[in-house]
Amino acid sequence: MVAESTDVAVGIDIGGTNIKVGLVDAEGAILNRLILKTAAYPEPQSLVEDLAGRIQRLVEGNSLLGVGIGAPNGNYYRGSIEHAPNLEWKGVVPLADWMTEATGVPCLLTNDANAAALGEMLFGDAKGMKDFLFITLGTGLGSGLVVDGQLVYGHDGAAGELGHVIVQPSGRLCGCGRRGCLEQYASATGLLLTYRELNPEASSNTTSREVFDRAAAGEQAALETFEHTAQVLGLALANSVAYTQPEAIFLFGGLAAAGDILLKPVREHFEANLLNIYRGKTTIRPSGLVESDAAIHGAASLIWQTA
Amino acid sequence: MVAESTDVAVGIDIGGTNIKVGLVDAEGAILNRLILKTAAYPEPQSLVEDLAGRIQRLVEGNSLLGVGIGAPNGNYYRGSIEHAPNLEWKGVVPLADWMTEATGVPCLLTNDANAAALGEMLFGDAKGMKDFLFITLGTGLGSGLVVDGQLVYGHDGAAGELGHVIVQPSGRLCGCGRRGCLEQYASATGLLLTYRELNPEASSNTTSREVFDRAAAGEQAALETFEHTAQVLGLALANSVAYTQPEAIFLFGGLAAAGDILLKPVREHFEANLLNIYRGKTTIRPSGLVESDAAIHGAASLIWQTA
User: Which residues of B touch A82 (CB under 8 A)?
Assistant: First the structure.
């Protein structure tokens, strides 16, 4: 008698600190998982070798459909991580090809925010939606754009970098070397920069969580910080509707967890800046993904989307 | 013996002044055409009745696959013209349904810039391209966005209004009632507004053609006008790459006909404002459509695209 075997996908999220690996079934249940330290793999080849064995044990008797990887600066078409500033691995790393060879199953790779957008579509609150925008508000601002049920990769595989839309020419210096990028205003980093402008006495160790606590306690500078952040983000999101007119815009990540203290003014500035034909037709809502599982869900969605 | 019959589509472009109708074959040849005055049809129903007969005569012995319509404020999903400010027809006009009923063939409708983008894909220089952006620089700024070989209609059928991206909060008043829309800077209208700011002595009757002639003759204010227009447009186009990373951006319409006097500085500002991963991968080029036929080609493409 043959043991019952479940179809599963492996989702791998590669971050600057941790590598999360999870076994995900068709309903999004994470059947098994493990966490590795990125620093333990100074060469990507050593990760591939190690992972191949670990995945085999993780899968056990189940039927592995494929491996999805979300990574910073991931390029979907080439399946490679390209010049990721937050990783030790330099240059272009063709991780998807290596993993396919090492595991014997199809392996797909995209950037982490794109993967999370797919996760929202398959396992989160974008189920059944054809057109939506997914925004992660963490240290930076990442995004994934879904049009007519498909993630937008663009001509060269790197579409959907809304954090690097220039909203303030000659504004704040961005890590990308240019000035005035959206993520320098609408992210945990941007929030802190705004707070220090409004409250020059603030300690340089202040965290975005503390700014939230102070806003919740009614501190004027903290409240104005959220208002200013919402003003920039609300306008940028209103402008994004003129591109692909999404049904919903999902906000995910640390800053999105601030809830109404951010969401309420964002929605106000969003609606106030919409072209008349767009008004009342796009909702801004928190992500339906569980923060701790989102990266694994997203990466595994690369496989489940095509299964 | 049966006469030889060619498959044809009818393309109809509805403008504020003229209604252009053309019979288009699979290669884009316009076999037959006519022009009607929009003012002759104060009620859209009278146009439908009149067109049904005219189309029948236009088609002659050929095989009519369908009728495509490009119109201001056209909504693809509903096949309707909705609250078009430049037409006498008020409210929502379900023109596609009426035309389908009157002609007995499938009739599809979208906005004029979307139709022209399809025309570029089927009969112009975007043949074989999967991802591109089409921009019309006329009185206003219209746009059509193609992602993975499909025109982007969005959740509600009104995607791709880049002329109404706000580039200058509290900037110039736009016809849409808001301030700082791209088309108030990058269009024939915007060019003239800029020119009058830079040259307050200029007659209020100055045309964009005259500004071009003066720039070509070396007039400082006119040259600065093109530089300023290119600066705003170049940045806006660079930002648009962060959404869908197109292979090419096509510029069409009166202002695009200015050639290098506009294109050269637009390309410079575009490249200077691109995120590093996007540099050198998207070209800005003039449309390959013939101005006089573009609207008919575009409208007919709605049918040929699905044929």
Answer: 277
